[in-house]
Every structure is written in structure tokens, then in C-alpha cells.
């Protein structure tokens, strides 16, 4: 890892020496793409493989002979277009543009790599680049300051397109007006938005990016997105963007693949440049122009749109040439710093975190790493990769493993170990289930627990089943113990808070795979590409109790800050009783995972003497429970030591219930 750090220092000083420093280098969008001055418009594009280049579009009737570009020694093409005689810009705002290049693989029209907006005309297959430069009066002006970074992160993960209960593609404006107030009410303090960067294929969930600087036009205009983010800030929510720098779409019509007609332009050549599992292209992070493009991209979203930080997708895939696939990480250091490490990619992540934390000290960076790479979430200054948080995927995987079996066989010690097994001093964002589990063919926790019973037995005035009773009880317990012990941040994918019953199926037509296998489509239907928030809000359905519990859990964290409290102690992991007891700050959490045994006068240890009261009870009627616990009871501690704690008090702990106690003073 010292080799990695010295390479980072070398590239950093090269940027300082030859590129005017990190500040200038990371504002590549002021040098590439379209720049308007008082005299006209300059357009620049890095395309060393091309033999000739011309700017074409509506402005010159797509005439490839009208506006030829010239190329410098570094492979950068350039053209200056003076203003029209009447002083108006040579390219009208909102008009379509492309760059036509004569390349080693033929003549091709490409969307400029740094394009700020890209639109698919109805009826067209390919997208068109849009020259985006609205008049001053149409530009959105931010009115609200960005909130300070919260100590505990409670992230509500969203996708704009499917955020409506209606079967349609939702808009930035509707999300701003309908979804943001809901997130605030639910008690989350951060909203993470997927699928912002333009992607030609809707069904890619936003992970196959074609235009890196363009917010997806499916949901509205760049100004609409800005007003969404400003409204979130007004509500005190930080806005995180799910940014994709780990790979790029292999689409050659709309994206960067084969941009200048070569295989090795932005990407590695040969098999290393193709991600075999994702069917996408892999960036060459050792190329200075690629570093400029990606660093500038991160900065653009923070600067222009006022995002408050990023969740970096696929960091594991970047850091290893095997992409972390088909390998098991045991924690031995040679796995992290060995032949398979993509040193350039690790250095890129260090540069990116260095840039973000240097210029935007309040910004948050979360890296998705499944490997447990040491120093991943330590500062760059001490040789770390520099993320603020690691997205802790082991917990969700553990719940899947446990839910495949019977909960009567769950081991309390094993659950606690998975939740608390983290690298020293590295902060984690944890989650009980991932957004991928909500996709067609996979299973959410609610579906693992209740399966088909969810379709018939969720009305409060109708019959229940053992599956439903068990499912609703464990759904709440799994979420609270994950949040209570799993990390300094918590993430929930929209709809999962109330056990959303339907999976996500993006609209799609029939397709034939390269193997010749036929896959039927769903008639391009949006019926399963929406979120039925109406179910969580319906007071006559059992979903409502689950939603109310999640809301109470978020508000409890807001009040007590237990995810980031200095004090944590697990005093009991009792395998026969199936009980877990732990302290976070002043709170005492009691979980009884037993399927049938409830315990009277059950003694729980605590640190502080005094009176304790119930502050959250998963068995409350409001949360779809059986109301077995009296909330008015006061629990007095005695000085009798218990489970290595100086004080203790006794409680009634019903089966499949979690209760949180707080001191009364």
C-alpha cells in the first residue's frame, strides 16, 4: 500500500506542476465541451484516434463540411464559432448537436463527451446531444443553503422515475412536491438518488451511463433537478447522488464506447476493458485525460447542482482486475494489495476523495465496497482511500442467509458478530436489504418472510396467518437491530420501510439473447415500475403499521443519535432464550427473537442507575403488534450486577419483540 500512496503523490504533484493544480484540473468542464464567451462559442473534444472531426447539428443543418475542427499534439480537437451578425449565439440553446469523426473504424456521429444535456426524440432510437445554455431568466437560482453534514446519516434511497404510485415515469418536479415531504416526515435526513446521469437504457437502473455530465432527461430539465435539490435543502435534507465511475455503457451510439473509433480511448483495450459480468466498458484510470474527465464530473455535480455528496457505485469492481467477482475475501492483506489490485483505480479514488474533501469539506462520500479493503474509509492524508463511509454489504447478505433457513435456528452471537464486525475507526453505512433485492426475480426481506400471503392477508379487518404475524414482527426487529448495531449510517430503499409487496420490473419488450435464448417481455408495461406509497399510507392495511414503526425508529435516532453514540456495549447474547441486550448511549435495547417464549421479570443490565421508560416498542398496536407491553410502567434499577453491568432492571419481554428503554430524567 506504500506503493499506492507514492503513486498518488506522484500524480498529485504532476497535476500541480503541469495542470495548474487540482482546482484547475478538476474544472475540465471549463475547458472541454462547449464554452460560451462574449465573442462566440468554443468547442473542444479529446479524441486522439480520430482522423478528422466536424461539429454538426441543427445550427448548420447537419452539414459535415461546414464546421471542421483542428487537432493539437495531445489529440484535442477544437473549433471557435463566432456570434451571428446580430450578436446572437451561433448555436441556439436547446438545439441538437453531435460531433462527426472520421475514425479507424469508419465515420461516426457521437454525442460530445462533456455534453450537459441529452434527449431522446420521441420515435428515435439514438439520443441527441443538446446545446444547453438557457437565458439568465430561465436559469434556476438556488435560494437555500446546503445543510451541515449530519452526525448520524439516515439515508432514504430513491429512483425518480419509479417514485410515483402511478404506472408512469415520474418527474423531478413531482418528486420534489410529493416524495421529498414524505421522506422528511418519515424521519430520514438524507436522500440518495439513483439514475441521475443520463443512461439510454431505462432498465439498467441508471448503472449503464451514456452521458456523464447530463442529468437524465426522462425526468425533466436540469433546472427541474436543481429546484428538487434546493427544496430538499429547504427541508433540511442532504442530497447524495449515486454516481457511476466504475464502468460505462457499451453503447457506441450514445455513449463513450469507441468514441474516437478505437477500443482504447477512455477504456482499457482487450478483455481488461470489458466487464464480463456487467457487459460494460472499464475505464483506464491510469490515463490523465480519463482522470480529468471523471474528477471534473464529480466536481460538476457538486458545483452546478449543489449535491451534498456521493455514493460511489462499484468501488470493489474498480479496485481489483477480477472486479471482486468469484473470489472470497478472508481479510488477509495479500488479497487487497496483490497482483489483482488495480493500483490506478485505487489512486483515482484517492484523488477523487482528496478533491471533494479539499474543496467541499461538508460533502459526504460513501463507497460501495464488498471486499473490506483496509484503509478504505480512512483519510487520504494517512494513506487511506479517503471515503467517509463504507457501504457495509455483509449485513444484507447475512439476513438473506438467515431468512433462507428457519429463525428457530438463528444464533444470537452470529447476528451480533456480523453487525459489529467492522474495521477499527472506519465508519459504515449499513442496510438490511439492497435495492437489487427489490428487482424482479429477487426477494426483499418482506417477501422472504411473508411471500404470497402478502397478497391476501394484509387487511387489518381480515384474517391473518402465522406467516404474516411472524413476518411483520421480524421485519421490524431486523430493521431496528441493523440500525442499532450495524453502523454510523443507515440506508433504506424506498418502499421497503413498509414491506413493499411488488417487485420492480422495468418496462421491456421481448429479446433474443446472443445464445439464441428467447426472453418474453412485459409489453413495455410500467405497472411494476412504480412504488405503491398508497399501501404504506392506507390505515386499513398492515403495511401502515410497518411504515409507522420505521418512522418511529428514524425519529428515535434523530432524538437520541444512538447510531453514533460513543458508548456501545452488548451485555447479552443468550442462545437458549434467543435474547440480545445492548446499550447505545443511554438507551437499552432488548430483542427477544424467540418464536413462542415470552419472559416475565427478565433482568437486563445497564450502565446508569435510575428510572427507565419504554421509548419504542415493536409490539405496540400502532405498529401492527399485539400490545403486550404497558408503556406507562416505570422500571427502577437495582444495584444488583447483571451480565457484567453495574445496575439492572427487570422487564417483560414478549416473543418476537424489540423494545428500547431510556432513562426518565
Automatic annotation (TrEMBL):
InterPro entries: A-amylase/branching_C (IPR006048), Branching_enzy (IPR037439), GH (IPR017853), GH13_cat_dom (IPR006047), Glyco_hydro_13_N (IPR004193), Glyco_hydro_b (IPR013780), Ig-like_fold (IPR013783), Ig_E-set (IPR014756)
Keyword Transferase found: yes
Catalytic activity: Transfers a segment of a (1->4)-alpha-D-glucan chain to a primary hydroxy group in a similar glucan chain
Pfam family, one: CBM_48
This protein's UniProt keywords: Amyloplast, Plastid, Starch biosynthesis, Transferase
GO CC list: amyloplast
Coiled coil: none
Claim: Transferase is one of the keywords in the record: yes
GO MF entry, a single one: cation binding
Class of this enzyme: transferase
Binding partners and assembly: Monomer.
Function, as annotated: Catalyzes the formation of the alpha-1,6-glucosidic linkages in starch by scission of a 1,4-alpha-linked oligosaccharide from growing alpha-1,4-glucan chains and the subsequent attachment of the oligosaccharide to the alpha-1,6 position.
Protein name as annotated: 1,4-alpha-glucan branching enzyme
Species whose genome carries this gene: Aegilops tauschii subsp. strangulata
